[in-house]
Fold these 3 entries.
Entry 1:
Amino acid sequence: MQSVMRGRWAVAGMFLVNGMLMGAWAPQIPLLLPRHDIGEAMMGLLILGLGLGAIAAMLFAGRLIQRFGSVPVLILFAAGLVPVLPAVIFAPSLPLLALAMMAFGALAGTMDVAMNANAVEVERGLGRAIMSSSHGFWSLGGFLGGSLGGVALKVFGREGQSLAIALVMGLIVVLAARHLWRGPQAPAEAAEKHPLLPRSPIVWLLGLTALMCMVPEGAIMDWSALFLINELGLSTEWSGLGFALFSASMAVMRFAGDAVRNRFGAVRTLRVSALIAAAALLAASVAPSHVLALAAFALAGLGIANTVPIMLSAAGNLRGMSPGAGLATVAMVGYAGILVAPSSIGFIAEHAGFRGTWAGLSLCLLFVATQAGRARDADGTHRA
């Protein structure tokens, strides 16, 4: 049991590293435009390439985990991710920048699936949920990477910041790698028995449900500030509060989420969480003031926090499918929501307004509530 507990903190360290990179990457984005003499449209295409690289890699991540196990894959791709930010920042030309960003996405996407697969194995070893708090460490890493990375950017410049973040990430990966928990693995030849894309409709429905959890998250990330400025008159310097409060409440609930799920079960936790988030977005759609809208976004964070971790636990414990295959498919479909949200929400908001958009997104979460029963396999963490 002691080795499983060490594995629990080791995989938390991997989540921290992944989130730290994403947090440190965000303040670097505006600096790439003048360096490569590009505009926002080209930068958007580069970021799209990063996302598509992640989703494409997730297609093959499940096969790799089936064949080699989650620990070797996680260590390999975590190590590969360490130098990726310097590679992006030091890229001397636009074509090399595009290649570096696609590699960024592919490495981060495969690491994402592998660390979630390893968290599922730890859940089985401990016989209790740890997925929500693992994602809480990702949120904490994002906060540390964004805040300390921003300070490092001012002190050391963009090249120095990327190297400093890479050094910290490398140290954490080295410390965590030796303690990762190796759960029982299926025989290597089992990888040949499953197609690249699973045929089971259940896993695709889980993926669709995860997407419905992630689209509202992406919408709040990208559009809450504009809504607060344009429709509620909040000043620009305070407009980031919507996403900040959403993220803070999400992080808090993710650290508390495992205890909630262990107490009430995955199905009930998912259903109530989705209903809370749906009610919060509906409240945002009719909020008469920015104070109530900010409270609604904070409440939405509490509701959405545990939805994706539960869906990933359910995918990793899906009967008749290896954890790697289930997680890769659900993660691939679900994370597409982060790509879909910015463009699709912008189009909808232009025609229906942000208030109609928030109300429409609440329907996504009502759909999640109706599908909560399909997450019952998330409570199978005790299965060997």
Note: The first helix runs from residue 2 to 25.
Entry 2:
Amino acid sequence: MNKTMMDILACPIDKNHPLELFEIREHGGIISEGAIFCPKCSRFFPIIEEIPIMLPDELRDKKQETEFLKKYKSQLPEKIITKANPWHL
């Protein structure tokens, strides 16, 4: 995901903008792994293989996102790991 996308992205749940970006792997302005966080509804959206997965809760893959949280728990903030919606560790 190109970092400049953050200028136009809004939360798909509550339409909040701006969102918070947490980079895990970045090279040349392209984020390959990371997370987007909505401070209004406390939802996180993972960035996996350069793709931000910003789906409504009912279309999200709980297993994939829980594995993502476990893999990067030392690199993401507490508010995502232990308090984010729709699930956390």
Note: The chain has a mean pLDDT of 96.
Entry 3:
Amino acid sequence: MSGQTTTGKRIEVARNQLGLDLPQLARRIGVKRKTLENWETDRSEPRADRLVKLAGVLQVPLVWLLTGDTPQDSDRNPLAPETAKIAQKLERALAMQQDLAALLMGLSADVTRLQRELDKDQDLAA
């Protein structure tokens, strides 16, 4: 990915490598499509907080995004620990979602069973 001369061009290259279009990336980083387009065409520059977010979403080192240089040591990527934490949170959320789905299915079965019993009791009383 090296050799791209501007930050805007590097953003565009990384976005295309992930198969994202402008609106998709803009939504993921919380900016308007036109803002992202202006960054990619070098009409404007993203603020520091947006650069950090871009690097994370685009899965590229922040240093590369800023300078085009590839860090020699991947352990020096400041986003690696943050990315690992996010992945752990995602795994926990998915596990919780599965537990919730199982709980909801159980509740639905209980409600159906109780409704049948109520219907049966009403039929007997009538």
Note: The mean pLDDT is 85.
